[in-house]
Amino acid sequence: MAKNTMFSFPTRDQRNLSFGEVSLDILTDILSNLNNKNKSNLEKVSNMCGCLKERRIVECVFLLCEELGLSPVVAYQAIEILERFTAKHIEDLIRSRNYSSDTEDTRNCADLIFQTLKHKFFLFIISSIQIASKLDLYTNALSYPSSKKQLLDSEIFILKTLNFNLNVPNPVTYVETLLEVLGHNDASVPVAQLHDQCVPVLQFIYLQRETIYNSLLIAAIGCPSPSHEQRAKFVSVTEDFMLLGVGVIAVAAFIHHISTCEKVVEELTEITGISAQSIMDFAHVTLMHITDNTSK
Fold first, then answer.
1. What is the pLDDT, as a whole number, of residue 292?
2. Would you say residue 278 has pLDDT above 70?
3. 231, 51 Cβ separation under 8 angstroms
4. How far apart are CA 197 and CA 286, in angstroms?
5. CA R_g for the chain
6. CB-facing half-sphere around the CA of 291: CA atoms within 13 A
7. Are 111 and 104 in contact, with CB atoms under 8 Å apart?
8. In angstroms, rounded to a whole number, what is the distance separating the alpha carbons of residues 172 and 178?
9. Quick check: helix, strand or coil at residue 270?
10. What's the rounded Cα separation, in Å, for the pair 182 and 170?
């Protein structure tokens, strides 16, 4: 696919999404819950986190959801389900074979994982989208050149591997909740217009994820060649959905009207406790890559 491929998910109007209809008390509880989940997930991150958010996989999920007319929530939820399932499945494979850490065993383990996944991986992608679509109240069966039994068996396998725990974080939820709180705190903030900008911004970040976060890491450590240890520690940044949410909104605010960006960032800092500097660093790097991408 082309480097700057973008996808057309259903718009806010098509999703019947409106802001300002939830009470501040409920919003506060939702935001607190999301914040706690985010912190809990960051405490459990591993080096495998983010590995399956590779561009080609993300493009595949986005394209399938676009063709099916599914909500962007489904696409991001499917990516999260797929990543968590695959990581757990790989852990189970390694544990079941009792591999040691020597070079030969490591090579054999990698071969086993590749052979196990390569023929079923697209089916796992389809099944993850199917599960995510059901969570979003879409119940239409997805078209796939395989039997219904194979698809159902694959869904059940994913669900069992995840112990039926589908309560995984979703970046869209963070962005939309933060926008709701923004609108309650300051009625002058053009929340609906910002949301329309957030959709392509979040999509761009996911498609350019590795490049953007690598630039953030380099900027943070001041070194063009981060060590393995530095990359491992930075996983807690790449998996931080609250940071991603405020960064997406800051970029959207800059694109919508640069004069409102500083005010929006101040509000986001008040809401989340994330420093204005961290938010602006994220926004600056993202905008730099957006500009570079559109100029090619």
1. 85
2. yes
3. no
4. 14
5. 20
6. 9
7. no
8. 10
9. helix
10. 19
Of 282, 255, 279, 252, the C-alpha closest to 265 is: 279
Question: How does residue 279 score in pLDDT terms, banded at 50, 70 and 90?
Answer: very high
Nearest to 17 by CA among 170, 195, 160, 274: 195
- Supply the pLDDT for residue 13: 52
Q: Is the pLDDT of residue 164 over 50?
A: yes
Cβ pair 142, 68 in contact under 8 A: yes
CA distances from 95 to 168, 192, 245 (A): 24, 48, 35
Cβ neighbours around 185 below 10 Å, total: 14
DSSP 258: H
Residue 8 has pLDDT above 70, yes or no: no
Q: Identify the CA nearest to 267 among candidates 183, 194, 193, 192.
A: 183
pLDDT in tens, 100-145: 555 555 566 667 677 778 888 999 999 999 999 988 865 455 666 6
Above 60 in pLDDT, residue 76? yes
| Start-end of H helices in the chain | 24-43, 55-68, 72-97, 103-118, 121-135, 148-161, 171-185, 191-207, 209-221, 228-238, 241-256, 258-272, 276-294
Locate tokens 């380099």: which residue? 218
pLDDT of residue 1: 39
**CA–centroid distance for 128 within its chain:** 14
Structure tokens given for 4: 């700057």
Whole-number percent of the chain with pLDDT over 70: 84
